[in-house]
């Protein structure tokens, strides 16, 4: 805990229409929590990327990259992502999706039954996309089908 960075992370890159003034003054308690979760996710994402970068830099032989010229960091990011181990990659994808869902306002809604997921569950497992009831049901199904 040495550096203090409080500047807002600008999450651009998806293009599309970004509403310019998106500041709501009266966030509900749930929305506030969601923003906290988003901060946590962004932090987690940075940690994973940082660790992955360290690991990649530690590789003995640098991969030969084609000359990308000014094909921006997106390409670099992509090839970088491809080098992440599967587990990190999957987690990173989930984190990205969760951040996207927070931005879209669809975060915390069960993708199966459409009900809001309990905030405590979201805090414990931000990348979840199902409420406890549906998740439990799914796990039961998986047990029964032997997957
Ligand atoms: Zn559900």
Give an overview in words:
The protein has helices spanning 29-57, 73-83, 86-104, 119-124, 132-145. The protein is mainly α and 147 residues long. The longest helix has 29 residues, at 29-57. It is built from 5 helices and no strands. Bound molecules: zinc ion (ZN).
CATH architecture: Up-down Bundle
Q: What profile does the largest beta sheet have?
A: none
How many DSSP H or I helices? 5
Distance between the termini: 43 Å
According to CATH, the fold-level topology is Four Helix Bundle (Hemerythrin (Met), subunit A)
* CATH H-level superfamily title: DksA, coiled-coil domain
Structural class: mainly alpha
> Can you tell me the residue ranges where pLDDT is under 50 for at least 5 consecutive residues?
9-21
What's the level 1 CATH class?
Answer: Mainly Alpha
Strand segment tally: 0
Give the averaged pLDDT, no decimals: 78
* Rg calc: 19 Å
Helix and strand pattern: HHHHH
| Shape summary | flat
Bound molecules: zinc ion
- Strand residue content: under 5%
Q: Indicate how many domains the architecture comprises.
A: 1
Into which percent range does the helicity of residues fall? Answer: 40-55%
């Amino acid at each position: 805990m040495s550096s203090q960075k409080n500047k807002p992370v600008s999450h651009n890159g998806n293009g599309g229409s970004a509403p310019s003034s998106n500041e709501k003054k009266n966030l509900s308690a749930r929305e506030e929590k969601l923003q906290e979760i988003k901060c946590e996710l962004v932090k987690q994402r940075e940690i994973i990327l940082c660790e992955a970068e360290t690991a990649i830099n530690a590789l003995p032989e640098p991969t030969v990259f084609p000359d990308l010229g000014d094909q921006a960091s997106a390409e670099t990011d992509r090839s970088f992502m491809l080098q992440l181990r599967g587990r990190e990659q999957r987690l990173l994808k989930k984190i990205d999706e969760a951040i996207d869902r927070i931005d879209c306002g669809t975060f915390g809604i069960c993708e199966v039954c459409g009900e809001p997921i309990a905030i405590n569950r979201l805090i414990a497992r931000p990348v979840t996309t199902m409420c406890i009831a549906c998740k439990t049901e799914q796990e039961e199904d998986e047990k029964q089908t032997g997957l």
